[in-house]
Amino acid sequence: MTLDEQVAYLTKGCVDVVREAELRTKLARSAAESTPLTVKVGFDPTAPDLHLGHTVLVRKMKHFQDLGHRVVFLIGDFTALIGDPTGRSKTRPPLSRQQIRENAETYKAQIFKLLDPDRTVVDFNSGWLGSLGSEGWIRLAAGYNVAQMLERREFRRRYDAGQPISVHEFLYPLAQAYDSVHLRADAELGGTDQLFNLNVGRDIMPTWGVEAQVVMTTPLLVGLDGAEKMSKTAGNYVGINEAPNEMFGKLMSISDALMWEYYKLLTDLSLAEIDALAARTESGAAHPKQVKIELATRIVTDFHSAGAARAAAAAFERQFARRELPTEAEVFRAKVNQPRRLTSIMVAAGLAPSSTAATRVITQGGVKIDGVRVADRFHVVPAGHPPFILQVGRRARRVRPFRSAPGQKNPAAP
Amino acid sequence: MTLDEQVAYLTKGCVDVVREAELRTKLARSAAESTPLTVKVGFDPTAPDLHLGHTVLVRKMKHFQDLGHRVVFLIGDFTALIGDPTGRSKTRPPLSRQQIRENAETYKAQIFKLLDPDRTVVDFNSGWLGSLGSEGWIRLAAGYNVAQMLERREFRRRYDAGQPISVHEFLYPLAQAYDSVHLRADAELGGTDQLFNLNVGRDIMPTWGVEAQVVMTTPLLVGLDGAEKMSKTAGNYVGINEAPNEMFGKLMSISDALMWEYYKLLTDLSLAEIDALAARTESGAAHPKQVKIELATRIVTDFHSAGAARAAAAAFERQFARRELPTEAEVFRAKVNQPRRLTSIMVAAGLAPSSTAATRVITQGGVKIDGVRVADRFHVVPAGHPPFILQVGRRARRVRPFRSAPGQKNPAAP
Description:
Radius of gyration of chain A: 25 Å
Oligomer: homodimer
Strand order of the largest sheet of chain A: 1-6-5-2-3-4
Largest sheet of chain A: 6 strands, mixed
Number of strands of chain A: 13
């Protein structure tokens, strides 16, 4: 790859790159001196169960490895060992070293599906932060101003709202910054919510005699619903330990628009390759369903194997043929706070002009749920029902029931 | 002493007592359990050369000792060992352990003139702060809020003015507070400028399982000029290592109003005793000059001996008789930016109605400087001239020449 291509590959999908020119300089020097760059990424040791949302960042680490660089998978166990010293959060008890070791193993089992173990250093910041010493902490804290800290949006918001910020919360970004000093990081990657913390590292490194790191952030991945960020809580996720068929089926349910975002953030294809694929789809040379199958195949291959992906694709096709599932996943988010008449959902989803019309189609046998005909015109969808395919004649919707919080409006369909 | 008398004795002259009721409780418990209270006072190891201004605080420590309590003279060497980690202050290089030990000896030689060595613990906070550990610092910082810190007047002012406050400046009050935790202090004393820091100790102690300390502050002592706080820079001080005669003479130069303040802050007399003395002076039963001689005698006795004080008093009387010095020290602060005609000063000091009148008195032989007749009517006082007694006939002034900063007005005479 040329230097331009390297920069394009590494910055693909990134939200912030501070500064691209410095990244270019470091890459050029690395090549000239045949010395790999050190790329640092911090992870919280309390949440080792990854979904595709987390892999956006891990994949960005992989991209650096693809170009021969050295990645530090840094487990931020220093703060976890302490827990919440204010005693305010009952949900943050300190972790034991044993728990942290176990979580690290769980992490490894997952990340090495994407990362090259030979180019990955798994490290723990308690090693150096635990022995930083009083003078070290004072010196670290001396390198940053209160006003700079309060520029962080989250701090600013709480300060302005009169909500307490403990002084030790100012020490945590500095501790993370010191990790970069200790590791002599050339680059640090993180989610967009980490931009402030990553820049603190960038800011203080020169005062400790270390060249400032390049800071790069990856975006939050939108979940399967195309609406909220992917998370366990929202239920719109694909866990990287899920079975191939489950993973494949979930990925086939996303919208075409979301599919291109996933191509960008969940595959190693370059932007040029993705653009070419989009153009072929646009012109009709490639079929959207096939393009989506290719995406799902790539992702299942990453976390299982090519064989498993082929088998999952075949299984999906069989299921699709049997149930006449719609290829286009037009998702309708239906509010189902309490058991709701199917006819009401049909009207709300735009599959029938009125309740009367909806009742008529049901009695005529033209309505199916997940491929199974519904004969009862009083059919009710219970609260808590899982997503289903609703077919009315030749039209269909994926219906995703949800319970609204009190006072919450029906979120816009994607 | 009754409990009431103890409280009155200990709080005499204090600016803040937080809370007097707690002090009373602690004193009662101390008596009941025959266990002395621990009284902590922190001192900066960089400035061991004391003047009477510093002794206000040291004497308050003595008052606790007088009632049988244990005093910790705490040398805050932790921060001094680090110096200024921001590198902004070139005048604050780190001190070596050797320098700190030497400064401690200098301190001891001075404070043991007032304090009882047997009831004084001289300690150094580097002992526990240097080994506080990362978890200790985090826990310490977790116990205080950013908003609480910014309530400190000095921080608030700088923050509002956009002047930088380094994060480590938030750690220093917490470190001082931890001293109180470590020492299990029952009370902490300090100057009024220390009120915030002392209260931080009071605030955090309960979260470390230690009973909160009582906080007591002593006022700044006004200097000999009766105008500014006593300091070396202002030149209005009495050093506690000064010779008896010098000390005595300086003290005799203060105004009557200041004399009562000095009685309160620089002697062990109770307020009741001082009030009685003031009443006798008011009624004419005691002569102000004699009362001032008694004050000077008490102070010189404290720092030298009763014999030295008697000798100094006698020497002063002889000098007074010889030079016909004024008993009342009416001080006139004369601006002498460049050599200034004596006649001009006489007019400004109110000792002559006009230059012409002033010239006439000089030529008539009625003007003396420090008891020596001035014959030259063009006599000039050079810039930088030390203070002197100016007599015009039977009237006299202490003239204290000063240079004004550019644009500064002549400060009001006391």
